[in-house]
Amino acid sequence: MNPAPRYDAHCHYHHEPIASRWAEMLVSLNELNVRGAVVCGTAPDDWDAVDALADRHTWVTPAFGIHPWYLHGATGDWKAQLRTRLDRPGAVVGEIGIDHGRDASEWATQEDVFVWQLEEAARRNLPACIHCVRADGRLLELLESHDRPACGYLLHGTHASAEMTRRFVELGAWLSYSANTLSRDRVRKAIRAAPIDRVLIETDAPYMPPEPCVSRYELAGDDDRRYNHPANLAVGYERAALALKMDIDELAARVAENYAALFGAMDNIK
Ligand SMILES: [Zn+2]
User: Fold this and answer.
1) pTM above the 0.90 mark?
2) How far is the centre of ligand 1, averaged over its atoms, from the C-alpha of 156 (Å)?
Protein backbone atom coordinates (compact mmCIF):
# COMPACT_ATOMS: atom_id res chain seq x y z
CA MET A 1 0.00 0.00 0.00
CA ASN A 2 1.25 3.49 -0.80
CA PRO A 3 2.10 5.78 2.11
CA ALA A 4 -0.22 8.80 2.50
CA PRO A 5 0.68 11.49 -0.06
CA ARG A 6 3.59 13.77 0.83
CA TYR A 7 4.21 17.40 -0.18
CA ASP A 8 7.51 19.30 -0.27
CA ALA A 9 6.63 22.95 0.41
CA HIS A 10 10.07 24.31 -0.49
CA CYS A 11 12.89 22.88 -2.57
CA HIS A 12 15.29 23.52 -5.43
CA TYR A 13 15.04 20.27 -7.40
CA HIS A 14 16.39 22.12 -10.47
CA HIS A 15 19.79 22.61 -8.79
CA GLU A 16 22.75 20.21 -8.79
CA PRO A 17 23.37 17.50 -7.83
CA ILE A 18 19.64 16.71 -8.05
CA ALA A 19 19.04 17.98 -11.60
CA SER A 20 21.52 15.69 -13.38
CA ARG A 21 20.22 12.64 -11.46
CA TRP A 22 16.56 13.46 -11.86
CA ALA A 23 15.43 10.03 -13.12
CA GLU A 24 16.86 8.38 -10.03
CA MET A 25 15.37 11.07 -7.74
CA LEU A 26 11.95 10.54 -9.30
CA VAL A 27 12.01 6.87 -8.35
CA SER A 28 12.57 7.82 -4.69
CA LEU A 29 9.92 10.53 -4.79
CA ASN A 30 7.41 8.10 -6.27
CA GLU A 31 8.19 5.53 -3.59
CA LEU A 32 7.42 8.18 -0.99
CA ASN A 33 4.21 9.09 -2.84
CA VAL A 34 5.20 12.74 -3.23
CA ARG A 35 2.29 14.51 -4.95
CA GLY A 36 3.42 18.11 -4.85
CA ALA A 37 6.53 20.25 -4.57
CA VAL A 38 7.15 23.99 -4.74
CA VAL A 39 10.36 24.38 -6.75
CA CYS A 40 11.84 27.81 -6.06
CA GLY A 41 13.99 29.82 -8.40
CA THR A 42 16.66 32.07 -6.89
CA ALA A 43 17.64 34.52 -9.69
CA PRO A 44 16.79 35.07 -13.37
CA ASP A 45 19.53 32.66 -14.47
CA ASP A 46 17.75 29.63 -12.95
CA TRP A 47 14.16 30.51 -13.87
CA ASP A 48 14.33 28.57 -17.17
CA ALA A 49 15.19 25.40 -15.25
CA VAL A 50 12.22 25.92 -12.90
CA ASP A 51 9.94 26.43 -15.90
CA ALA A 52 11.26 23.27 -17.57
CA LEU A 53 10.65 21.13 -14.50
CA ALA A 54 7.09 22.45 -14.20
CA ASP A 55 6.56 21.69 -17.91
CA ARG A 56 7.55 18.07 -17.29
CA HIS A 57 5.60 17.50 -14.08
CA THR A 58 2.18 18.93 -13.32
CA TRP A 59 2.77 18.26 -9.59
CA VAL A 60 5.59 20.84 -9.58
CA THR A 61 4.49 24.34 -8.56
CA PRO A 62 7.02 26.74 -10.09
CA ALA A 63 8.16 29.69 -7.97
CA PHE A 64 10.02 32.67 -9.42
CA GLY A 65 11.91 35.26 -7.46
CA ILE A 66 15.24 36.71 -6.45
CA HIS A 67 16.79 35.24 -3.30
CA PRO A 68 18.60 37.62 -0.93
CA TRP A 69 21.91 35.83 -1.65
CA TYR A 70 21.59 36.45 -5.39
CA LEU A 71 21.03 40.18 -5.62
CA HIS A 72 23.31 40.26 -8.66
CA GLY A 73 20.18 39.02 -10.46
CA ALA A 74 18.28 42.18 -9.59
CA THR A 75 19.68 44.19 -12.49
CA GLY A 76 18.46 45.32 -15.91
CA ASP A 77 14.86 44.54 -16.68
CA TRP A 78 14.48 41.92 -13.93
CA LYS A 79 11.10 43.26 -12.84
CA ALA A 80 9.66 42.87 -16.34
CA GLN A 81 11.20 39.39 -16.63
CA LEU A 82 9.73 38.36 -13.30
CA ARG A 83 6.29 39.67 -14.28
CA THR A 84 6.41 37.56 -17.45
CA ARG A 85 7.32 34.43 -15.46
CA LEU A 86 4.52 35.07 -12.98
CA ASP A 87 2.00 35.21 -15.83
CA ARG A 88 2.44 31.43 -16.09
CA PRO A 89 -0.74 29.83 -14.68
CA GLY A 90 0.00 28.19 -11.33
CA ALA A 91 3.24 30.13 -10.74
CA VAL A 92 3.95 31.58 -7.29
CA VAL A 93 6.54 34.05 -5.94
CA GLY A 94 9.83 32.86 -4.39
CA GLU A 95 12.36 32.52 -3.13
CA ILE A 96 12.47 36.03 -1.72
CA GLY A 97 13.47 37.36 1.67
CA ILE A 98 15.99 39.02 3.94
CA ASP A 99 19.13 37.54 5.52
CA HIS A 100 21.05 39.24 8.33
CA GLY A 101 23.65 36.48 8.22
CA ARG A 102 24.95 38.39 5.18
CA ASP A 103 27.08 41.52 5.36
CA ALA A 104 25.14 44.54 6.67
CA SER A 105 26.13 46.51 3.55
CA GLU A 106 23.69 44.29 1.59
CA TRP A 107 20.67 44.74 3.83
CA ALA A 108 19.19 47.87 2.26
CA THR A 109 19.27 46.34 -1.24
CA GLN A 110 17.88 43.06 0.13
CA GLU A 111 14.91 44.98 1.52
CA ASP A 112 14.25 46.92 -1.68
CA VAL A 113 14.28 43.73 -3.76
CA PHE A 114 12.24 41.80 -1.20
CA VAL A 115 9.56 44.47 -0.74
CA TRP A 116 9.04 44.93 -4.48
CA GLN A 117 8.54 41.19 -4.92
CA LEU A 118 6.28 40.92 -1.86
CA GLU A 119 4.10 43.70 -3.22
CA GLU A 120 4.02 42.07 -6.66
CA ALA A 121 2.77 38.90 -4.93
CA ALA A 122 0.15 41.04 -3.17
CA ARG A 123 -0.93 42.73 -6.43
CA ARG A 124 -1.44 39.32 -8.05
CA ASN A 125 -2.61 37.60 -4.86
CA LEU A 126 -0.03 34.83 -5.26
CA PRO A 127 1.61 33.05 -2.32
CA ALA A 128 5.17 34.23 -1.62
CA CYS A 129 7.88 31.85 -0.35
CA ILE A 130 10.02 33.75 2.13
CA HIS A 131 13.55 33.14 3.42
CA CYS A 132 14.44 34.87 6.68
CA VAL A 133 17.69 34.41 8.59
CA ARG A 134 18.44 36.26 11.86
CA ALA A 135 15.95 38.96 10.92
CA ASP A 136 12.55 37.84 12.23
CA GLY A 137 11.88 41.18 13.96
CA ARG A 138 12.71 43.18 10.85
CA LEU A 139 10.66 40.85 8.64
CA LEU A 140 7.68 41.34 10.90
CA GLU A 141 8.04 45.14 10.56
CA LEU A 142 8.26 44.87 6.77
CA LEU A 143 5.23 42.59 6.60
CA GLU A 144 3.23 44.94 8.85
CA SER A 145 4.09 48.02 6.80
CA HIS A 146 3.59 46.70 3.24
CA ASP A 147 0.92 44.97 1.21
CA ARG A 148 0.90 41.21 1.70
CA PRO A 149 -0.78 38.59 -0.49
CA ALA A 150 -4.31 38.06 0.82
CA CYS A 151 -3.95 34.33 0.08
CA GLY A 152 -1.02 34.11 2.52
CA TYR A 153 2.69 33.46 2.35
CA LEU A 154 5.15 30.78 3.45
CA LEU A 155 7.95 31.30 5.94
CA HIS A 156 10.22 28.52 4.79
CA GLY A 157 12.81 26.81 7.00
CA THR A 158 11.74 29.07 9.80
CA HIS A 159 13.62 29.28 13.09
CA ALA A 160 11.16 31.79 14.53
CA SER A 161 10.43 31.42 18.25
CA ALA A 162 7.01 30.27 19.43
CA GLU A 163 6.04 33.89 20.20
CA MET A 164 7.23 35.22 16.82
CA THR A 165 5.53 32.31 15.06
CA ARG A 166 2.19 33.39 16.54
CA ARG A 167 2.78 36.98 15.39
CA PHE A 168 3.65 35.89 11.83
CA VAL A 169 0.51 33.73 11.72
CA GLU A 170 -1.58 36.78 12.66
CA LEU A 171 -0.14 38.41 9.52
CA GLY A 172 -1.10 35.48 7.29
CA ALA A 173 1.89 33.12 7.49
CA TRP A 174 2.12 29.43 6.80
CA LEU A 175 5.25 27.83 8.30
CA SER A 176 7.36 25.06 6.85
CA TYR A 177 9.67 22.80 8.83
CA SER A 178 12.31 20.30 7.78
CA ALA A 179 14.26 17.37 9.16
CA ASN A 180 17.15 19.83 9.50
CA THR A 181 15.40 22.64 11.37
CA LEU A 182 13.51 20.26 13.67
CA SER A 183 16.82 19.19 15.23
CA ARG A 184 16.56 22.39 17.32
CA ASP A 185 14.59 22.47 20.53
CA ARG A 186 13.46 26.06 19.81
CA VAL A 187 11.97 24.96 16.46
CA ARG A 188 10.20 21.97 18.04
CA LYS A 189 8.61 24.38 20.54
CA ALA A 190 7.63 26.72 17.69
CA ILE A 191 5.93 24.02 15.62
CA ARG A 192 3.78 23.20 18.66
CA ALA A 193 2.81 26.89 18.90
CA ALA A 194 1.82 27.06 15.22
CA PRO A 195 -1.84 26.40 14.38
CA ILE A 196 -1.96 22.92 12.85
CA ASP A 197 -3.71 24.29 9.76
CA ARG A 198 -0.65 26.44 8.97
CA VAL A 199 2.02 23.70 9.19
CA LEU A 200 3.88 22.46 6.11
CA ILE A 201 6.94 20.25 5.60
CA GLU A 202 9.89 20.94 3.30
CA THR A 203 13.35 19.71 2.37
CA ASP A 204 15.06 22.76 0.78
CA ALA A 205 16.88 19.99 -1.16
CA PRO A 206 19.64 19.86 -2.33
CA TYR A 207 20.46 22.12 0.64
CA MET A 208 20.04 21.81 4.41
CA PRO A 209 20.60 18.04 4.85
CA PRO A 210 19.51 16.58 8.19
CA GLU A 211 22.32 15.50 10.54
CA PRO A 212 24.07 12.29 9.41
CA CYS A 213 22.57 10.33 12.34
CA VAL A 214 19.00 10.86 11.11
CA SER A 215 19.56 11.30 7.36
CA ARG A 216 18.17 8.29 5.52
CA TYR A 217 19.19 9.18 1.98
CA GLU A 218 22.63 10.55 1.14
CA LEU A 219 23.32 12.55 -2.00
CA ALA A 220 26.86 13.11 -3.23
CA GLY A 221 27.90 15.98 -5.48
CA ASP A 222 31.13 16.84 -7.24
CA ASP A 223 32.59 18.38 -4.10
CA ASP A 224 32.93 17.42 -0.42
CA ARG A 225 29.78 19.19 0.62
CA ARG A 226 26.86 17.20 2.10
CA TYR A 227 23.74 17.61 0.00
CA ASN A 228 20.16 16.83 0.92
CA HIS A 229 18.38 14.04 -0.95
CA PRO A 230 14.73 14.99 -1.68
CA ALA A 231 13.52 11.73 -0.12
CA ASN A 232 14.66 13.03 3.27
CA LEU A 233 11.21 14.65 3.14
CA ALA A 234 10.17 11.43 4.92
CA VAL A 235 12.43 12.31 7.85
CA GLY A 236 10.90 15.79 8.06
CA TYR A 237 7.41 14.31 8.36
CA GLU A 238 8.59 11.87 11.04
CA ARG A 239 10.32 14.56 13.11
CA ALA A 240 7.32 16.87 12.85
CA ALA A 241 4.92 14.10 13.89
CA LEU A 242 7.14 13.33 16.87
CA ALA A 243 7.37 16.99 17.92
CA LEU A 244 3.59 17.38 17.57
CA LYS A 245 2.86 13.99 19.18
CA MET A 246 0.65 13.24 16.19
CA ASP A 247 0.06 10.09 14.23
CA ILE A 248 2.08 10.44 11.03
CA ASP A 249 -0.83 9.61 8.71
CA GLU A 250 -2.97 12.20 10.49
CA LEU A 251 -0.18 14.77 10.08
CA ALA A 252 0.19 13.84 6.40
CA ALA A 253 -3.54 14.38 5.88
CA ARG A 254 -3.38 17.81 7.55
CA VAL A 255 -0.31 18.83 5.56
CA ALA A 256 -2.03 17.79 2.32
CA GLU A 257 -4.96 20.08 3.18
CA ASN A 258 -2.64 22.93 4.18
CA TYR A 259 -0.59 22.63 1.00
CA ALA A 260 -3.75 22.78 -1.09
CA ALA A 261 -5.05 25.75 0.91
CA LEU A 262 -1.93 27.85 0.32
CA PHE A 263 -0.84 26.79 -3.14
CA GLY A 264 -4.29 26.21 -4.64
CA ALA A 265 -2.72 22.92 -5.37
CA MET A 266 -5.60 21.02 -6.86
CA ASP A 267 -5.08 22.91 -10.11
CA ASN A 268 -1.43 21.93 -10.16
CA ILE A 269 -1.34 18.38 -8.91
CA LYS A 270 -2.57 16.01 -11.53
ZN1 LIG B 1 15.53 27.52 -0.46
Assistant:
1) yes
2) 8
Residues 6+ away with beta carbon under 8 Å from 115? 142, 146
Ion ligand 1: protein residues whose beta carbon lies under 5 Å: 204
229 CA distance to ligand 1 middle (Å): 14
The mean pLDDT value of the chain amounts to 95
For residue 13, report the distance from its CA to the centre of ligand 1, in Å: 10
- For residue 67, how far is its CA from the centre of ligand 1 (angstroms)? 8
Expressed in angstroms and rounded, the spacing between residue 181 Cα and the centre of ligand 1 is 13
pLDDT per position as a tens digit, 90-120: 999 999 999 999 999 999 999 999 999 999 9
What is the reported pLDDT for 1? Answer: 64
Q: What is the mean pLDDT of residues 206-215?
A: 95
The H-assigned helical ranges of the chain are 22-31, 47-56, 78-86, 107-124, 136-145, 162-170, 185-193, 233-244, 248-263
Whole-number Å distance between alpha carbons of 239 and 202 = 12
The secondary element (H helix, E strand) that includes residue 6 is strand 6-11
Query: How far away, in angstroms, is 1 Cα from ligand 1 center?
Result: 32
Does residue 2 have a pLDDT over 80?
no
Alpha-carbon distance of 83 to 143, in angstroms, equals 21
* CATH top class, domain 6-267: alpha beta
